[in-house]
Design brief:
The complex is a heterodimer of chains A (389) and B (396). With 389 residues, chain A is an alpha+beta fold. Helix content of chain A is 46%, strand content 6%. Chain A folds into three domains: 182 residues, no CATH class; 61 residues, no CATH class; 97 residues, Cytochrome c-like domain (Cytochrome Bc1 Complex, Chain D, domain 2), CATH 1.10.760. Chain A has twelve helices and four strands. Chain B has one domain. Classes of the chains: A alpha+beta (389), B mainly alpha (396). The interface between A and B is medium-sized, with 13 and 11 residues.
Chain lengths: 389, 396
């Protein structure tokens, strides 16, 4: 095939020493477009071919600095500007804590860019078709031989002369290497499209299976699946099929006082109020009365409801009927409600209810004072020294 | 066995070098004695700073020698003798430590019974921090180092004549024994002489910190001497840029290593922010020390890092000489940073003093004199070493 273009002449050498020597001689002979291929780096080769130092370092340097700048500003923006978070009592922008991350990221991107840069340069990307590929020569130099290629582009290149020259240096298996024919490829090669589709299906499928199936297999179990009965579930162990157990009959919670008048038909017979009408008890009663009772019964228990007919107004508690109630009866009404009046057992504690009863008694006495109350009041006023007749 | 054609001719170093060394030692020595007379407390801190740098140089050089044997390194063989000569500071450490043993009460708060009586934590540490044990273990360590130095250098020198390969084998075994001993003892030395100045502070990485410093200093001194000697023809002409490159790379590596260790220590304690730990950095963060700490990062890491980063600078003799002088100074600055801020622990206030220049001057003089004397007596290259030819053939 004569229409093929010659790329260069290649020769194989048997020892690292001979290839270093050959490289030196080739360079000395004035060739510039030549290459040495060895299975591993050989000490002294840089010197022999007088290699200029690689430009790859600049890529690493540039990418490394960019990575450091990027990750620093990223952490600064996310953690100090966009969503400031105090972590461990440190400032929003704790520089020392960010240094390791910056370091790692710099090294990572620096290394990756070096590797990819090297591959890109060596493979002549995006062309991935170096003439040396798939040659007998390349197979040899990537296992146990050392090779040199003198390229046809070189000014001094003459096929016959170069062959002789390489032979004289100790090279053997001289091989002529041609440039591959240029082939135009279609963009949408059916094979390639099918390949893409298969890759897409595999990726999507494996993601789906991982997230929806594999994650549910132990030991990747979620915390909601635990080996214990849940509150509403049917029990296979207890005969009543209830997973949630009830306390033993007659159990009383700590600090809980059962309702005294359970099952008593007429609570009016109970007069006793366990709380004495001391100042603090009355203040508690007042507070609770204002909160819970005054909306319906009025601030002074006179039946002046604030509910504006949205609810049947509570009657006055100054009626002879209520005055006649025993403390136990009023307590019972608060606890259980009466007709439309709802129960206040959940809003108030036992003590608070008895305190409210005491407070109602005070309000009632204020509406229906006894003569002795007036003398008592004037005496109090006299003592404090501000008599106003 | 036939001798290798090394091209080395034994020559004496220029007379001026010895003279300079002598002048430095005498002038520095007189000033140092004067310092001890005028202000013993301040002088002992200043002396400790220099002493630590000297320990770093001596033991770091010995470590480089053993490292070559243990790792089977080839390229460094022409320079090994230089490190051996610098390691000759090791036998003097014991002698030089004696004044420090006498001024321990100035250096260490835990020597003060009143302070200890009030402090439960310190009382617990007295098991380790007491004068007899302190002196015993340090003397023992200096003696052990001395022993290793004697054995290693004796074998190495014997080989110049006999070229006996068994001597190399023997030194490899000695080096293997030395390295764990070195790791342990340098930690003890760093804990005793520096960490215990802040007696309640602790940092497990501190020994590694001193290791980084000592190897760095020993490498810088080696590089300086190796490049100067090679360039002016005292060493074999077969030493090439490839050898320089390896020295430069190691210097670069230990620059980064120090930064890594120093930052690790700082970051962990800064993050934990525990009173007994952070106190160390608080002392180095108050007043002018804050700027000194920044300065240290700049001098000890950023500048040598940037200088040594390009490949060219590792083979350029001028740059190598410059950077190794820089590093020698930077290591002294680091010793300074390690010692001086702790003066407050003993109730002293720090201020710069002329003594801080007198002691290092004397030390430099001493090292030059020792080196000069060694060069007069022995070969500057291990001529009988079986690896010598291979090391001349060394290529990048």
């Amino acid at each position: 095939m004569t229409d093929k273009k010659l790329f260069g002449v290649a020769a194989l050498f048997d020892s690292p020493d001979s290839i270093v020597n050959a490289a030196k001689k080739i360079k000395e002979a004035g060739y510039n477009n030549f290459d040495i291929n060895t299975p591993y780096p050989i000490h002294g080769m840089d010197d022999a071919v007088k290699a200029k130092s690689s430009k790859l370092g600049y890529i690493t340097l540039f990418i490394g600095f960019s990575a450091a700048a990027f990750i620093m500003s990223f952490m600064w923006w996310t953690l100090a500007i966009n969503y400031p978070l105090v972590v461990g009592g440190k400032p929003y922008f704790p520089l020392p804590a960010f240094v390791p991350i910056t370091f790692e990221f710099t090294v990572l991107l620096g290394v990756l860019s070096t590797v990819f840069g090297m591959i890109a340069v060596a493979f002549n990307l995006p062309n991935n078709s170096h003439p040396l590929m798939d040659t007998e020569y390349m197979k040899n130099v990537s296992s146990d031989k050392y090779g040199a290629v003198i390229e046809a582009e070189d000014a001094l290149f003459e096929e016959g002369k170069v062959k002789e020259f390489l032979k004289s240096l100790g090279g053997h298996s001289i091989e002529l290497i041609y440039r591959p024919e240029e082939v135009k490829h279609k963009v949408f090669e059916p094979k390639f499209v099918i390949f893409l589709a298969i890759v897409a299906i595999i990726c999507a499928g494996s993601t789906y299976i991982t997230l929806n199936k594999l994650m549910y297999i132990t030991p990747f179990d979620f915390m909601m699946n635990q080996k214990k009965g849940s509150a509403q579930a049917e029990s296979s162990f207890f005969s009543d099929k209830h997973e949630m157990r009830k306390p033993v009959e007659g159990t009383v919670a700590r600090g809980f006082m059962p309702y005294e008048f359970n099952g008593v038909a007429d609570t009016n017979q109970f007069y006793g109020n366990p709380l004495l009408p001391t100042k603090s008890v009355l203040e508690l009663g007042q507070r609770k009365f204002i909160t819970f009772c005054s909306p319906c019964h009025g601030n002074y228990a006179d039946g002046s409801s604030r509910l504006r007919s949205q609810f049947p107004p509570g009657p006055t508690l100054h009626s002879a009927r209520v005055i006649g109630f025993s403390d136990g009866k009023i307590y019972n009404i608060i606890t259980n409600g009466q007709n439309v009046m709802p129960s206040y057992a959940y809003q108030t504690t036992r003590e608070e209810r008895w305190a409210i009863v005491n407070y109602i008694r005070v309000l009632q006495r204020a509406q229906n004072p006894k003569p002795s109350d007036f003398t008592a009041i004037s005496e109090i006023k006299k003592e404090s020294g501000n008599v106003q007749n | 066995m036939s001798k290798i054609e090394s091209g080395y001719i034994k020559k004496e170093l220029p007379k001026n070098l010895g003279k300079t060394g002598l002048i430095l030692l005498i002038a520095g020595g007189i000033l140092s004695v004067l310092a001890y007379i005028t202000d013993p407390a301040r002088a002992s801190f200043s002396y400790l700073t220099t002493f630590i740098s000297l320990v770093c140089l001596g033991i770091g050089s010995l470590f480089l020698v053993t490292l070559e044997y243990a790792a089977g390194a080839v390229w460094s063989v022409p320079f090994r003798r230089i490190s051996e000569f610098f390691a000759s500071a090791v036998p003097y450490l014991l002698l030089l430590a004696i004044p420090l043993f006498f001024s321990m009460h100035n250096l260490f708060t835990w020597m003060n019974p009143e302070v200890v009586a009030q402090d439960k934590v310190l009382q617990g540490r007295m098991v380790y921090l007491n004068v007899p044990f302190f002196i015993t273990r340090n003397v023992a360590i200096f003696l052990i180092w001395w022993l290793f130095y004697l054995l290693l250098t004796k074998n190495s020198r014997k080989q110049d004549e006999s070229a006996d390969q068994n001597l190399t084998t023997r030194n490899i075994k000695l080096s293997m024994a030395f390295i764990p001993v070195f790791a342990f003892s340098i930690s003890i030395v760093s804990f005793d002489w520096m960490m215990s100045m802040t007696p309640k502070w602790f940092s497990t990485i501190f020994g590694v910190y001193l290791f980084a410093d000592s190897t760095w200093l020993a490498l810088a001194v080696l590089t300086l001497a190796a490049v100067l000697l090679t360039e002016s023809g005292y060493l074999s002409p077969k030493v090439k840029r490839d050898h320089y490159y390896s020295l430069g790379t190691l210097l670069f590596a230990f620059t980064v290593f120090w930064a890594y260790i120093a930052f690790s220590q700082y970051m962990l304690q800064w993050y934990g922010n525990l009173p007994e730990e952070i106190i160390y950095f608080m002392h180095r963060w108050t007043g002018g020390w804050k700027y000194f700490s920044f300065f240290l990062v700049f001098v000890h890491f950023i500048v040598p890092f940037l200088i040594l980063l390009p490949r060219r600078s590792k083979t350029n003799p001028k740059i190598l000489i410059f950077v190794s002088v820089w590093i020698i100074a930077a290591q002294y600055i680091d010793s300074y940073w390690l010692v001086m801020p702790d003066m407050v622990n003993n109730g002293f206030t720090y201020s710069f003093s002329w003594m801080d220049l007198a002691f290092p001057a004397a030390a430099v003089g001493l090292v030059i004199l020792l080196f000069n004397a060694k060069v007069k007596k022995h070969n500057l290259m291990p001529l009988g070493d079986p690896k010598l030819q291979r090391s001349f053939d060394f290529h990048l």
